[in-house]
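To assess whether the prediction recovers the assembly geometry, we first specified each molecular entity separately, as shown.
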Amino acid sequence: MTINDSAEPAAIEVENLTVSYGPKPALLDVSLTIEKGLLVGVIGPNGAGKSTLIKAILGFVKRDVGVVRIQGIPAEKAKGLVAYVPQRGTVDWDFPVCVKEVAMMGRYGHIPWYRNPGKKDWEMVNEALEMVRMTEFSNRQIGQLSGGQQQRVFMARALAQSSEILLLDEPFAGVDAATERAILDVLDRARSSGRTLVVVHHDLTTAAEYFDRLILIKQRLFAYGKPEAVLDENLLSEVYEGRLRVFSNINKTQLYR
Amino acid sequence: MISLFEPIITPLREPFFIKALIGGSMVAVVCGVVGCLVILRRMAFLGDALSHAMIAGVVGGYLFMKLLFGIEAYAPAMLVGSLIAAVLTVFLIGFVSRLSRIKEDTSIGIMYTGVFAAGVVMVSIFRNYVHIDLMHFIMGDVLGMADVDLWASAFIAALVLSVILLFFRYFQLASFDPIMAASIGMPIVMIDYVLTTCVSLVVVSAVSMVGVILVVGLLITPAATAYLLSDRLDHMMILSSFFGVTSIIGGLYLCFHLDSSGGGAIMLFCTFQFLLVLFVAPRYGLLVRWIKLRRIIPQQLAEDIIGTVARYSPISQAKIRKLLPEHVKIQRGIKALIFEGYLCMSDSGLTLTPEGQKEAQRIIRSHRLWEAYLQHVGTPSEEIHPKAHSLEHMHDPSAVEYIDDILGHPVQDPHGQEIPEDPSCREPGAIVLLSQLRSGRKVKIVKAPKSGKGSELQPGEIILTGNRQNGGKIWVVEKHSGQLIKLDHHAADAVIVECI
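The predicted structure of the complete assembly is given in tokenized form:
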């Protein structure tokens, strides 16, 4: 693969990526290039390797084969260029930490160990909290927030990190419809400020509406492209193995919302 | 007055007491700080394991100096030995749990008892060379602290506190979200090792005071006490140190006046302190939780009251009580509902507010739909009402919608009573299915089938819904031109309209 040096490098490039836990590959020979400024959804059945793909882009899992480049830089050297919003279930919500401290964690990568957070860091934290409309909760312990608010705190952390690329693992899981709208609104605003977002998503009925591009994955990359092209009935039935009855209702459900 | 303060002052005249107080407080402060990280990372069992394993190291260090250099009870060697034993144990635990199907907690249990046993066996074999009182290590001896112990504790406390304070952010983030920590380039494996080493050091310095068995308590109990009172890690560490020091002070006085074991008295005081906080903590305490639970009005009670008021409004409190004999907290429930704006009290009795009416409609709709459903699945008629009465509280919108759909959006329940429309179908601008509407509604078509039934309807067109025919199975709509169009359930589901 040749890269045109004069052009701006793509936000994320994945080449022939294979990741395995034991004998079964979690990801097999995945190659894709995500351009800057897109809101990209990652879809696929449970255990398809969606979270693994996110972690591979973060440089958190060991790659068996392949290269991941972030803005042209190999992932292992690109620490801090990518911000990460974890799945809600993986966070210890009883941890003694308040909203603004979580947002400040986004700045940790920029503060040397011998210094305390400075004025500029606090400004960026407040700005990020403002953007997700969580300013009034900044002194709340994170366990005392609703599901959607918790999600937004972690988005503020990702924004405060001032990374160009945001990875979100199932931000819409277990939140009500109004919260889903609010989160989508923040994603939209992050995209319009030029950021690239990759979002693991489980709800096919909303996938077309929310995202510019979709990644359909089950170990292998089945499709990457515009939602109309990826949400092809034959392709989906191949990936989801006949659990397709749901999808014939997609249009109806979507409009009814 | 003097006699009042006498019990406090007398012990302070004893040098051994002062020494214990100073040494104990140093250890307690650092235990408190490290303990916070230990409990947040669920390493409590590991702390216990390390304290036991270090016995082998103490014996090893003792023997090493004695056999090679002939030096008796050389403290630095015993200290280094116990650290080596601790690190070795951590390594063995990781080795077993990573390479076999044995889980980590089991692996900890196996390895520390093994290393501990090795220490015990060594002491008994070399009992002629090693003059170690095992009981001293197992029970600790806070009042008999040697100067060297005091210096070692001071050194360890200073070292560990500096590391934790300097790298506070690293420990905080690596404990809270290791993936994020790794993604910004924090060396999380290194941080783990540093923390484990800190725990080992702290345990080593605390064992001579409270003993192997109680040391884990000094590590985690003050931290757990602070955890119940704080919402930030730095506050928790400060409070935890404070509770550690109060345990030492309280425990030492207890031990002095009762002439009991020092370590035991300290941990007993520490535990009582924890239990007290557990009950009275303002946010996470049991007392507060109990009060809150008592205050909550069960959803079922609230809904039953609203349903009753809807049927018999205006109604007196006494009548509600008579109609709902199965509930106990009715008066409190009514008060809460008035406070939340669902009910209002007038001279003639209780009535529903507009908000309450909406809620009542939702409950009645849910109840009658469940009744229709129960009849549909062949429930004996005498069971329908009581069953629906409990099922109506399951009003998750998508569940109710589903039942409405499979029953063909019925307009009447089995007793011939009207099933109210879904309140959300009344809001202007709501996009709904034609099949969900009742008669007499003016709506705008958003989408209609391209062919077959319903294709006469054009998007953008305004229509009027009429009465259903054929037992509710046929939907009738009137076009602006006056033309009547009949649709079955399937076709009515395919027509999407906007409420105006």
